[in-house]
């Protein structure tokens, strides 16, 4: 009977059955009584053409939207002789049942930490019954920092491009008064939308007057920095920013940076540029430009004599020592006024949104008006907590780890997933729309920046998505019970605590 039901289910509208289809099922259970089959086919054809009696439903009527009613259930004996049983109704709607095996629920914790004993034999490319001990030479400190690369979780699969770059591996340009090190797509090829520079200035030291073809967004790591600028309308701006604060200069806007002596060490900051191929060495520098302009042109431009610009450096200064900056209030007064939207933002004073697992504060063009190409979030995660499973719908994420230890699994679709470990000073990167989380795997607070090449911060929360989707649809996908459905959050959890009931 099974093979007949399969055939009839596919022909509820025409009631026409290809005899070849019937024969294809002949080996499924037993041999076929051909005369009986022909009678069944003839009967189905006649009942499809005959009108149903008025005022009642025919027992052989086909309702394509709900079910197929067979004229009878036929049981064939091994000799091919059939017996007739009562009609059987077969629903055309599929039941919500698993069609693939269930995913494993085994833990996949990192197998060690950066603080583990480097001589521990457990530090090996082995997880469960997979892998084998390393026999050749090894860089043990790198193994310690990257347990999920050396012994990946069983959930990792396929190929995802490298998404980690330690600033410690960037070439450092040392100058009198400070240094600078760069990260772009040469170091981290996956990072196509943004590049960065980590810069240090001793007290009084200057990052000389310059401009870029890209915008420049900055986060102050330590100390205080005075910034100055003039826009295309001749409006000027001078301000000092401290740890956790920001500045932003649009493309082509000239500016300078100078460390104050608020801290004896000067200042250090992180610069973000909205071009993955950006190189700090391609900056337009004041001294470099004038050193390559004929002297008579300079004299003519400024209306001065031969000696006025006779001490122009023969090459760029880049970073150099100088007297401490004057107070912000001593800045020249422009007849055109000051810029209407400040180039700095007191991010350190912005109130954070607190969650059971940590905190988040967001800055973009809605509160830092001038920042049209960079948005960011500063996130803290308590030990054992996670920045929830989420993705960013229209922009890549460039991240920088400020303190603590964390790990990120990037889901790149088509069963591709890879897990990375991060420590303070590391750069992470997640391309547009790829699912991920950030888990605190250490014993102290994890703090990091999420930075985006956009004017508005956006993310999609997996938890919220499921909570706002019809429950039966979620159940059909994931097999969740009502108690679990009830715990889904209709508002974004953002950072989830180590207690899974949060």
Q: How many helices does DSSP assign?
A: 10
The outline comes out as: elongated
Q: For the CA atoms, what is the radius of gyration? A: 34 Å
Strand content: 25-35%
CATH class membership of the largest domain = Mainly Beta
Separation, N- and C-terminal Cα atoms:
52 Å
Structural class: alpha+beta
Number of strands: 32
Which strand order do you get reading across the main beta sheet?
Answer: 7-28-25-30-23-22-21
Stretches where pLDDT falls below 50 for ≥5 residues?
Answer: 1-32, 45-93
| Name of the CATH superfamily of the largest domain | Jelly Rolls
**How many structural domains does the protein architecture include?**
3
Mean pLDDT reading: 86
Share of residues in helices? 10-25%
Per CATH, what is the topology of the largest domain? Jelly Rolls
CATH architecture term of the largest domain: Sandwich
Biggest β-sheet, characterized? 7 strands, antiparallel
Description:
With 502 residues, this protein is of the alpha+beta class. It folds into three domains: 90 residues, no CATH class; 178 residues, Jelly Rolls (Sandwich); 147 residues, Sandwich (Jelly Rolls). Helices cover 15% and strands 30% of the residues. The protein contains ten helices and 32 strands. The longest helix has 16 residues. It is elongated and about 85 Å long. The relative contact order is 0.11.
């Amino acid at each position: 009977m099974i093979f007949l039901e399969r055939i009839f289910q596919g022909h509820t509208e025409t009631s026409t059955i290809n005899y070849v289809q019937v024969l294809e099922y002949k080996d499924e259970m037993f041999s076929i009584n051909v005369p009986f089959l022909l009678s069944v086919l003839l009967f189905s054809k006649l009942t499809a053409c005959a009108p149903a009696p008025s005022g009642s439903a025919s027992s052989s009527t086909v309702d394509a939207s709900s079910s197929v009613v067979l004229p009878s259930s036929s049981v064939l004996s091994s000799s091919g002789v059939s017996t007739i049983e009562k009609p059987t109704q077969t629903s055309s709607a599929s039941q919500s049942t698993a069609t693939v095996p269930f995913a494993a629920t085994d833990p996949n914790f990192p197998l060690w930490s950066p603080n583990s004993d480097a001589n521990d034999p457990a530090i090996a490319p082995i997880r469960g019954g997979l892998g084998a001990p390393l026999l050749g030479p090894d860089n043990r400190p790198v193994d310690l920092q990257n347990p999920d690369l050396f012994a990946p979780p069983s959930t990792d699969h396929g190929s995802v491009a490298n998404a980690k770059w330690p600033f410690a591996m960037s070439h450092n340009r040392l100058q009198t008064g400070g240094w600078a090190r760069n990260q772009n797509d040469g170091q981290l090829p996956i990072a196509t939308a943004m590049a960065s520079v980590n810069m240090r200035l001793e007290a009084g030291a200057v990052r000389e007057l310059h401009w870029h073809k890209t915008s420049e967004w900055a986060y102050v790591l330590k100390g205080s920095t005075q910034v100055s600028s003039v826009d295309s309308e001749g409006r000027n701006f001078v301000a000092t920013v401290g740890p956790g604060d920001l500045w932003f200069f649009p493309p082509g806007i000239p500016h300078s940076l100078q460390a104050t002596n608020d801290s004896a060490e000067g200042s250090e900051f992180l610069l973000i540029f909205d071009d993955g191929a950006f190189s700090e060495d391609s900056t337009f520098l004041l001294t470099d430009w004038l050193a390559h302009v004929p002297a008579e042109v300079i004299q003519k431009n400024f209306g001065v004599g031969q000696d006025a610009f006779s001490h122009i450096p023969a090459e760029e200064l880049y970073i150099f020592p100088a007297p401490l900056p004057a107070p912000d209030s001593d800045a020249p007064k422009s007849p055109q006024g000051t810029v209407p939207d400040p180039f700095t933002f007191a991010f350190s004073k912005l109130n954070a949104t607190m969650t059971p697992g940590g905190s988040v504060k967001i800055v973009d063009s809605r509160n830092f008006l001038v920042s049209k190409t960079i948005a960011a979030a500063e996130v803290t995660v308590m030990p054992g907590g996670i920045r929830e499973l989420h993705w960013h719908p229209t922009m890549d994420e460039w991240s920088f780890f400020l303190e603590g230890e964390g790990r990120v699994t990037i889901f790149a679709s088509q069963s591709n997933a890879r897990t990375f470990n991060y420590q303070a000073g590391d750069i992470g990167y997640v391309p547009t729309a790829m699912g991920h989380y950030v888990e605190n795997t250490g014993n102290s607070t994890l703090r990091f920046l999420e930075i985006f090449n956009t004017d508005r911060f956006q993310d999609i929360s997996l938890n919220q998505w499921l909570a706002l989707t019809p429950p039966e649809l979620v159940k059909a996908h994931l097999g969740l019970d009502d108690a679990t459905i009830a715990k889904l959050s209709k508002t974004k959890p953002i950072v989830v605590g180590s207690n899974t009931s949060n």
